[in-house]
Amino acid sequence: MDIGNLLFNPNGRIGQKEFWIGVAIIFGGNLLLTWIPFLGTLIWLALLWVGVAVYGKRLHDAGNSAWLHAVPWGVSILLGVIGSIMLGGVFIAAMAGEGDVNMGALIAGGGMASVFFLLSTLVWIAYTIWVGVLKSDAGANAYGPAPVIDATAAPVEPAAPTDADLGESKD
Question: Which of 52, 88, 98, 136 has the smallest number of Cβ neighbours within 10 A?
Fold first, then answer.
């Protein structure tokens, strides 16, 4: 497996194993980068491209366009905007009193806003699982030849033929 091709080239196809390796790299990178203030943000931007390459090639493997990857981004951005607007409105409403902060309104509104952020996370989890378990196209498709299967994997034994396969009936 060529890790550079996996992470940076959006063309071609990858199987489930390579996809989950790419997702683990993206997840681990994002987790580590939250602790690095400015540089982490710059590297996070590069990880956006890595996500497009990894998810796009897996979508290609199932015969889908990589543009499908824009759907969870759009949903996530929309939910984030709604949550942020709610959170801003809650802070404005909580501070609108005569110097007193309405803590009940602040907590309730913050909880409602966090529901939208949680929904965004759930959208990504569901999308990632869906892309990860997509059935691959058996042969070549519009996005290239089928990915090479790891030769070190255990071979799958064919099932024994049944009476129905042999054309026999049990009457």
Answer: 98
